[in-house]
From TrEMBL:
Signal peptide (UniProt feature, chain positions): 1-22
PANTHER family associated with the record: PECTATE LYASE (EUROFUNG), SECRETED SUGAR HYDROLASE
Entries under SUPFAM superfamilies matching the protein: Pectin lyase-like
Organism classification: Bacteria, Pseudomonadati, Pseudomonadota, Gammaproteobacteria, Alteromonadales
DUF1565 domain residues: 31-71
Signal listed as a keyword: yes
Protein species of origin: Colwellia echini
Keyword field: Secreted, Signal
Compartment annotation: Secreted
Pfam families: DUF1565 (PF07602)
Protein's UniProt name: DUF1565 domain-containing protein
Length: 130
């Protein structure tokens, strides 16, 4: 009887889809690549990619760095946390580069590749309402 019960338990576990088991994935903005498998040694680059590939119930460990992205949580019950208390910043702010002098002390930059409209610009961490 004990052997039969063991076989039933093993069969049941093997019959479950792999995705029902919670797993962990890792994100590293500096050393990651969204083509990786999300393991600690081969982390994703973006939090969004980790959320897209991790099923419900798993944990996304975020390595140190600044993540400039909008994140749409793909599945319920995902947990987002920093890895081993590393310092992580998630921000919707983008860095604007390649400023050029327009005229009379007025500078301009190309915003064509940004996803959102700008309502504020910060210069050297100071707010400049426009």
């Amino acid at each position: 009887m004990r052997c039969l019960m063991f076989k039933i338990i093993i069969f049941t576990l093997l019959s479950l889809p792999f995705s029902t088991f919670a797993m962990d994935v890792y994100v590293d903005s500096l050393n990651g690549n969204d083509s990786n498998d999300g393991s600690l040694n081969n982390p994703y680059k973006t939090i969004q990619q980790a959320s897209n590939t991790l099923s419900s119930g798993g944990t996304i460990f975020i390595r140190t760095g600044t993540y400039r992205e909008t994140i749409n949580v793909a599945y319920a019950d995902q947990t987002f946390t920093n890895y081993n208390d590393e310092e992580v910043t998630i921000t919707g702010l983008d860095i604007v580069t390649d400023w050029s002098l327009y005229e009379n002390g007025i500078y301009q930059a190309d915003f064509a590749n940004f996803e959102t409209q700008f309502i504020q610009v910060f210069v050297n961490d100071a707010n400049r309402n426009g």
